[in-house]
Amino acid sequence: MKTSKTIKIALAVLLLVTIAAAAVYLLGRDKVPENSIAVDYNGKTHYADLQGIVLTEIHGERVNGKGEVKPVDGMGFSLHTLLTVTIGKDFTCESVTATAADGFSAEVSMEELQEDNKAVLLLDEESGTMQLIVFGDSDSKRSVKEIERLTLN
After folding, report:
1. How many CB atoms are closer than 10 A to CB 31?
2. What local confidence, expressed as pLDDT, does residue 103 receive?
3. Which of 2, 27, 87, 148 is 20 to 30 Å from the Cα of 103, by its Cα?
4. In the beta sheet, which residues pair with residue 130?
5. What is the radius of gyration, based on Cα positions, of the chain?
6. DSSP of 80-106, one letter per residue?
7. Which tens digit of pLDDT belongs to each residue from 121-146?
8. What is the pTM of this model?
9. Cβ atoms within 10 A of the Cβ of 108, count?
């Protein structure tokens, strides 16, 4: 009897700690303005205005996890273009980590950034968000939907 009461108290404390941790995490996150992506570079956060970048047609193919080749057609721009417009053409880094609203992330090397249309941001017309696509990958694990933040490493 005493053991079940102790277990109930421990579960209640664990639940309260979990709720407090979630609140601290959610309230501590930067709110990214609508129609923008946060870009973290040299200890500062810049906001890329997605409406200020001209969309171009993106065409290519990517391979999904089953090995199936899927066409990619839409409007977007290169990841390099977004970074150049947001922080300037002279930026340097080893890689860029793209992070989605749900925390999923993928990394793109500087060499890949510099290749023409290797790493692109494609507009999802339904949600109005951007999706990272890296052409040439053997599977699409680096396809990140709903990009919220780019971190230059």
Report:
1. 6
2. 92
3. 87
4. 123
5. 20
6. HHHHHHHH-TT---SEEEEEETTS-EE
7. 999 988 889 999 999 888 788 899 99
8. 0.78
9. 21
CB-based contact 132:121 (threshold 8 Å): yes
Cα–Cα distance, 128 to 75 (Å, whole number): 11
Assess contact for 104 and 131: CB atoms under 8 A: no
Residues constituting the chain? 153
Strands 36-41 and 147-152: parallel
Tokens of 128: 């109005």
What residue has token string 């692109």? 120
CATH 3.90.420.10 fits 33-152, yes or no: yes
Torsion region of 120: left, alpha or beta (phi above 0 gives left; psi -120 to 50 gives alpha)? beta
Q: What are the tokens at 32?
A: 């990214």
Q: What is the pLDDT of residues 70-93, one digit of tens each?
A: 899 999 999 999 999 999 988 999
Cα atoms in the Cβ-side hemisphere of radius 13 Å centred on 84:
10
